[in-house]
Amino acid sequence: MVGAAILLAGCASTPTIPEETISSPPVMIGENAALNWTDTNLVKKIPVVGPLKPAAPTVRTNPPPTAPPAAPVMTWTSLDRWAAENKIGPLHLIARTPVAAYAIGTANGTMVLDIGSREASWNGMEINLGFAPEFIDDQVFVHRADLRDAIVPLLFGPPLTFGNRVIVIDPGHGGSNVGTRSVLDGRFEKEFTLDWAKRLAPLLETNGWKVFLTRTSDVTVSNLDRVVFAEAHHADLFISLHFNSGAPDKKAAGLETYCLTPAGMPSTITRGWPDIWSQVFPNNAFDAQNLQLAVRVHSALLRAAGLEDRGVCHSRFDTVLRGQNRPAILIEGGFMSNPHEARLIESPEFRQKLAQAVANALR
Ligand SMILES: [Zn+2]
To answer: Ligand 1 center to residue 178 CA distance, Å?
Structure first.
């Protein structure tokens, strides 16, 4: 659990799309201009707001592809036309009810978009878009931010590379920051995140990773210090481990994996924190790789844990993610407020499965 607000965690929230965005017809001006999806001009114009001094993002690993497909510069884009221009092949209507669903694929995988829903799927797992696709004049329109930061990176992204294989694993909470607690017996989240990390570290080391843990005992570590720690150890990747809570609700269940919300789109979940779309953080330089890392790890966890898929989500309130100069994700490995999942989380065998899944994802 991250953040102080005791609100139901999950990806089911539906932020309002500003009226000027959804009421405007697709902008045709500049349609033929090529958009480099790694272009950060848009975000550079916006002042950085946040607790961390914006360091110049240093891309040490996972460089973007040299020749990404062109995407038109417009707020809403006809995905049909964009797919044709990039020789992907037509979108396929795969369902008419309860909502129309369209599939688009490359050798990387298949994305299914539901008209009117921000929940999409990538190779069968749930991912959350910033904006619900629209169906206008017999064509599927997607928001430019989703095209740039989700669709293109997944359909065309090069395989994720791991640089020098230096990873920082961050067991959530610790010391006076206890995290959430088990509905069964009141044991704290901080105990189980640390155990998960200690199980994961040797598995990663066996696979050639140099592993650093932000804490190896029950001590308090600030979120900012966790970011500084990753920077000091020149980490190529950062993964924060947590367990979730929907208290007092006992039914909320499943796995969530978070990455930082790309600039210009609403977060999947805000937990009551202000969600300022224009905010840009150092980690936004890694939007594409964050999503690639998240889907890779989330997929492995779903297979291993057998829990409900609550999706790959975007958030802005996770301070351990915002300042990272490397691909970074945060995993919520089940709900300690759910009796069934709390029992699993308290079982060493289940935590070993979670550790093995993360290690397998990073082979
Ligand atoms: Zn937590």
So the answer is: 8
